[in-house]
Amino acid sequence: MGKRKRESANKIKEARKDQFFAKLKNVPSSPRKMRLVADMVRGVEAFKALGLLHFSNKHAAADVEKLLKSAISNWEQKNGRKAESGELYIKTIFVDPAPMLKRLRPAPQGRGYRIRKRSNHVTMFLDTINKDNQDA
Questions:
Q1: Whose CA is closest to 93, among 57, 132, 53?
Q2: Whether this model's pTM surpasses 0.90
Q3: Which is it for the CA torsion 134, 41, 120, 54, positive or negative?
Q4: Alpha helices for 21-85 (secondary structure H)
Q5: What residues does each domain of the chain span?
Q6: Does residue 124 have a pLDDT over 90?
Q7: Cβ contacts of residue 114 below 8 Å, gap of 6+?
Q8: Which fold has domain 20-128?
């Protein structure tokens, strides 16, 4: 790695030291279905969101619940203590499309219909609830 690239990588690393996040890549469901679940928990307190996700009927909720547990674990590991209820909230969560698998399904008269098997990437950022940040 060159000097300039190493320096920019170190800057990004320093900026992320105070951010607590987790990523879930190549989830085999469409981004549209995952965004419904992401919108449900955006801005919600972390342990309340775990309850919402656990009892949700959406299939994608299980993946987001696993991601939230990972993000909480990352926060605990960086801070060296256990997270308490009412301390963390989901600051940002976004869903990006991932590469699509394209398949052909046989169709009448020798044609083929294209099937697009979509997948997505989910990124979640946690933050602590401060006394002066009660609007979140």
A1: 53
A2: no
A3: positive
A4: 31-41, 46-54, 60-79
A5: 20-128
A6: yes
A7: 102, 103, 104, 105
A8: Ribosomal Protein L22; Chain A (3.90.470)
